[in-house]
């Protein structure tokens, strides 16, 4: 899953980037409203963390511009604790949730997990596909109770497919949602990661749909 952080404070921006990256997300960063608006309109993010008090263009204006442009990715806004009006204006502008500063990073992570689940039609924090389980809180993956150890890129790929289980996902979509903008993207690496995943999982859950992409289904439905 690929996220965008728009925050002008260098330290907080770095902390968010590190925490989200450690949690298994691909993360792009912007430090002002104009850059954030541009990235949000030109790149396919799964969710955005957006500060309201930004230079060049404030966060609410950025959010309104995204919604006018038809961008419907979940947006978590960051507000000052004593500015309840920011929260109201944020929701009216199209925000999906908010966190007041100062905040605990675990709360940001939990709220983002919830936004990502809801955006893809999932209610529980544990995603299941037959005997395959992925716990979005802990990042643990198991098959029939057997723990599966994955690299960060393998985990990102599986998590994206799990969030979109039952739908064909193209290689292009996977490349766009698994890597940040600075990564040297090559769609051929997706095949490598899919091959590794299949071997580690040991079940026929990831199907190749020729000419279209990949489909995650329970093993009993594969074939």
From TrEMBL:
Instruction: Note the superkingdom of the native organism.
Output: Bacteria
Gene3D superfamilies from the UniProt entry: 3.40.50.2300, 6.10.250.690, Winged helix-like DNA-binding domain superfamily/Winged helix DNA-binding domain
Q: Which residues carry this modification: 4-aspartylphosphate?
A: 51
Q: Cite the InterPro entries for this sequence.
A: CheY-like_superfamily, OmpR/PhoB-type_DNA-bd, Sig_transdc_resp-reg_C-effctor, Sig_transdc_resp-reg_receiver, WalR-like, WH-like_DNA-bd_sf
Q: Where is the OmpR/PhoB-type domain?
A: 124-218
This protein's UniProt keywords: DNA-binding, Phosphoprotein
Domain Response regulatory, by residue range, is 2-116
Listed PANTHER family: REGULATOR OF RPOS, RESPONSE REGULATOR PROTEIN CARR
Q: Tell me what this protein is called.
A: Response regulator transcription factor
Identify the species of origin.
Answer: Ancylobacter crimeensis
What are the top taxonomic ranks of the organism? Bacteria, Pseudomonadati, Pseudomonadota, Alphaproteobacteria, Hyphomicrobiales
């Amino acid at each position: 899953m690929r996220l965008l952080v728009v925050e002008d404070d260098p330290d907080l921006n770095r902390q968010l980037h590190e925490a989200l990256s450690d949690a298994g997300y691909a993360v792009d960063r912007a430090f002002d409203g104009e850059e954030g608006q541009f990235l949000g309109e030109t790149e396919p993010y799964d969710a955005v963390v957006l500060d309201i008090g930004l230079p060049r263009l404030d966060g609410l204006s950025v959010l309104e511009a995204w919604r006018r442009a038809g961008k419907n990715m979940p947006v978590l806004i960051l507000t000052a604790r004593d500015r309840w009006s920011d929260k109201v204006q944020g929701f009216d502008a199209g925000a999906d949730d908010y966190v007041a500063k100062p905040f605990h990073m675990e709360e940001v992570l939990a709220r983002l997990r919830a936004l990502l689940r809801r955006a893809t039609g999932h209610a529980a924090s544990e995603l299941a596909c037959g005997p395959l389980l992925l716990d979005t809180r802990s990042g643990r993956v198991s098959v029939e109770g057997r723990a599966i150890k994955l690299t960060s890129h393998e985990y990102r790929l599986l998590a994206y497919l799990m969030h979109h289980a039952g739908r064909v996902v193209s290689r292009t979509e996977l490349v766009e949602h698994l890597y940040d903008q600075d990564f040297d993207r090559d769609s051929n690496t997706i095949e490598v990661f899919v091959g590794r995943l299949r071997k580690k999982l040991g079940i026929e859950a990831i199907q190749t749909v020729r000419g279209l992409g990949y489909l995650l289904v329970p093993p009993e439905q594969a074939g």
